Amino acid sequence: MGVPAARVSLNTATVREQWTLRQCIEGCARHGIGGISPWRDKLGELGAAEAARLIADHGLEVSGLCRGGMFPAADAAGQQAALDDNRRAIDDAATIGAACLVLVVGGLPAGSKDIAGARAQVRDGIAAILDHARACQVPLAIEPLHPAYAADRACVNTLAHANDLCDDLGEGVGIALDVYHVWWDPQLEVEIERAGRERLLAFHVCDWLVPTKDILLDRGMMGDGVIDIPHIRSLVEAQGFDGLTEVEIFSARDWWTRDPDEVLRVMVERCRDAV
Amino acid sequence: MGVPAARVSLNTATVREQWTLRQCIEGCARHGIGGISPWRDKLGELGAAEAARLIADHGLEVSGLCRGGMFPAADAAGQQAALDDNRRAIDDAATIGAACLVLVVGGLPAGSKDIAGARAQVRDGIAAILDHARACQVPLAIEPLHPAYAADRACVNTLAHANDLCDDLGEGVGIALDVYHVWWDPQLEVEIERAGRERLLAFHVCDWLVPTKDILLDRGMMGDGVIDIPHIRSLVEAQGFDGLTEVEIFSARDWWTRDPDEVLRVMVERCRDAV
Predict the structure, then answer these.
(1) What is the ipTM, given to two decimal places?
(2) Distance from CA of A30 to the nearest CA of B (A)
(3) Residue A1: pLDDT above 80?
């Protein structure tokens, strides 16, 4: 049981308040962590080319780039800006050799209550960038987000919906599965099987704390919450998923306030014992 | 468009910090609100028989009693205690002539990560009280709660799951639909149609605020958030639902701090203009 450090990836959000991208890369190497998944703000510190060189020098895999998406907008100019930004994200993902570009698809445009309309914009947005992604050989990974984020972050909130989009859009589109967002879903088992190996592009872990004190920034370290992570991992692996297990913890109250070397040490322990 | 005051019901949670049940009943009458839905702690102030008399004297309908449920427990004694409590709730619902007993089904027992097991306990718990509910002619209304409450309040988190339970359990079990819990669901339209008139026992409204500052106690007044309430109401009414529209707002930061007569005044306005 458990995931050895060499098969773990650090999502830079986990220590985003403490470390630069360079420090994250060096930290992973120091702790024997096999991969990294940078957010774009961190990537911007070095630029994609320099980051790619540094990541390769430290022998790390890149389990993903976070993030593209945010398609819905109130007007055509906003929609176009989102597409342009997504194409740049695809270029960066290609440069760093990311296994996928994670898409946090976006929520309701300001002032809108039209979630069906937002979902249509998401579908059309992914379709619009798909040729570029295919040309760059960057798989797009739709991340279904917990329904608590439907309004302001992502209006794709179930694995079933993500699978529907994959059915619709075809080759080059898959799924980033984060246990935090999907653990509650009674259709989880069925929809992981439906996704299958081809679509499962990324596997993210953290934990759901009880109580959750902040809807965005109070995620837990694996083992500290109520998610049966080994069970979900077994479902994903039963489909043949053999990518890195990526640790992404937004934790303003706890892990972002700690010594980042302690965070990585605990994260490695917990991937071994609680994932 | 809109719901007139006579077709509105006050869920006592909306002014729970300000008013006793007696004040709630008198407040409804004063504002022309046609119904009430008490929580059991408020009902305990008067006892069910006296409450029934006072409610009838003020000409109010009772759109529901909140709440039964909370079935999952760590041991048999806890499970039995939950069943006993639910039977008492059914008796109280019968005494006050409630249209239904709302079931907030319960989450994970302390220390458990077994959500499938909790769901099985919920199914078995409802089955165990169903004969008594039928004998008392009290319909049981399963309320699917937002997935944000899966761990600690209710492990039935989609209308599809509630419909599955209704299929399984048969006559005497239906659904309490609260827009706050289901507005994000891409299957909402399909599952409301599947529920149909027979199962739609209660319709609750409030709004989803952006940002939501507290996962439990920051619900909004209708019109102040992002839910397209008129659309959802139209779906429910298309099935023939003709019950009261019940206003249930948990709002520690805002509405619970206001003059309760102002709360009822605004609530009536918003039911007319934003529901």
Answers:
(1) 0.96
(2) 33
(3) no
SS3 A116: helix
Q: Which residues of B touch A187 (CB under 8 A)?
A: 160
Task: Say what the pLDDT of residue B168 is.
Answer: 98
What are the chain A neighbours of B210 within 8 Å (beta carbons)? 108, 151-152
Instruction: pLDDT band for A101, please (50, 70, 90 cuts).
Output: very high
Side chain identity at residue B52, one-letter code = A
Alpha carbons B134 and B173: distance in angstroms, whole number: 9
Q: In B, which residues are within 8 Å of A110 by CB distance?
A: none
CA dihedral B127, B133, B135, B136 (to 10 degrees): 170
Residues of A whose CB is below 8 A from B113:
226-228
CA–CA distance, B16 with B34 (Å, rounded to integer): 18
Taking the CA atoms of B41, B45, B50 and B53 in sequence, report the sign of the dihedral they define.
negative
Q: Are strands B61-62 and B65-69 parallel, antiparallel or unpaired?
A: unpaired
Six-digit token string for A134: 């295919």
Question: What distance in Å separates the CA atoms of residue B273 and residue B255, rounded to the nearest whole number?
Answer: 18
What token pair was written down for B70? 């909370």
CA distance B154 to chain A (A): 10
Taking contacts as CB-CB distances below 8 angstroms, the residues of chain A near B147 are 146-148, 184-185
User: At CB < 8 Å, which residues of chain A contact B?
Assistant: 108, 112-115, 119, 146-148, 150-152, 155, 157-158, 160-161, 183-187, 208, 210-212, 215, 225-228
Are A162 and A196 in contact by the 8 Å Cβ rule? The answer is no
| DSSP per-residue letters across B66-112 | EEEE----SSHHHHHHHHHHHHHHHHHHHHTT-S-EEEE-B-PPTT-
Rounded CA gap, B136 and A151, in Å? 41
Is pLDDT at B1 greater than 90 in this prediction?
A: no
* Contact call for residues B268 and B9 (beta carbons, < 8 A): no
Cβ atoms of A191 and A142 closer than 8 Å: no
Q: Is the pTM of this model over 0.90?
A: yes
**Mean per-residue pLDDT, B63-73:** 98
* Cis omega (within 30 of 0) for bond into B211: yes
For residues A146-156, average pLDDT = 98
CA distance B226 to chain A (A): 5
Residue A55 distance to chain B (closest CA, Å): 36
pLDDT of residue B171: 97
Residues 6+ apart with CB under 8 A from B11: B36, B37, B39, B63, B64, B66, B204, B246, B247, B248, B249
- For chain B, list residues whose CB is within 8 angstroms of any CB belonging to chain A: 108, 112-115, 119, 146-148, 150-152, 155, 157-158, 160-161, 183-187, 208, 210-212, 215, 225-228
Q: Looking at chain B, which runs of residues are DSSP E strands?
A: 8-11, 35-37, 61-62, 65-69, 101-104, 140-142, 173-178, 200-205, 245-247
